[in-house]
Design goal:
Elements (H helix, E strand, L loop, with lengths): L8 E5 L4 H12 L3 E6 L2 H14 L6 E5 L5 H10 L5 E4 L14 H29 L2 E6 L12 H21 L4 E8 L5 H14 L3 H11 L8 H11 L11 E4 L9
Parallel strand pairs: 1-2, 1-4, 2-3, 4-5, 5-6, 6-7
Helix pairs in contact: 1-8, 4-5
Amino acid sequence: MDMGIGGRRALVCGASKGLGRGCAEALAKEGVHITLVARTASTLEATAEEIRQAVNNAVRITAVACDITTEEGRAAALAACPDPDMLVTNAGGPPPGDFRDWNRDDWIAALDANMLTPIELIKATVDGMIARRFGRIVNITSAAVKAPIDVLGLSNGARSGLTGFVAGLARKTVAHNVTINNLLPGPFDTDRMKSLLESAAKSTGKNVDSLRESRMKSNPAQRFGTAAEFGAACAFLCSVHAGYMTGQNILLDGGAYPGTF
């Protein structure tokens, strides 16, 4: 399927690896010019070069090493891509733990990364999209928004706040061909999954490999998802074919969520 977005511009956050990289790769293959944002310059530059080679330099790939959760980082990213047609927000999830151990600073950090940063990026880009009569905003959140995970309370709270905000705004922008949707990843084979398994191993005394195997077998798909699968879903939401879909929370979890709705 031709996504109909060749030649457009996308700002993709957390794009040096994992799900953000999967989104960037999928969009680049559709002919979209990509501005990649992540904190670690060396990893980001390596990713940018690999994507350039994968698409035979058919699109512009720009790398901006910054902390997108800061005002300075957002300014740097937007200076490199001031008028994106597509925005993919993404920031690392806060650490797991017991809510009794979290203080105000922990909560503010989670809100800054996983709620307020996406809102600030949307605020900076959505009016330009409306003026151009095309825009696609995709927020990478978490399956925990749909089915909260007790040890991920910081993530549950911050990402649910973003979800509520998007639900209202998305109904105001769609008449201008600007959609806002959320992608909710369940268990994917990423560094985030690795860190969660390592944390579980420390708390339970179990082997990381055995926990990984058990986690995969407990999923109806009998495996973890891949970044390429996630990126393909993102590319569709950014396509011309998804103009009638807005304010939605799209769950990608291999069937792990047991509910009907």
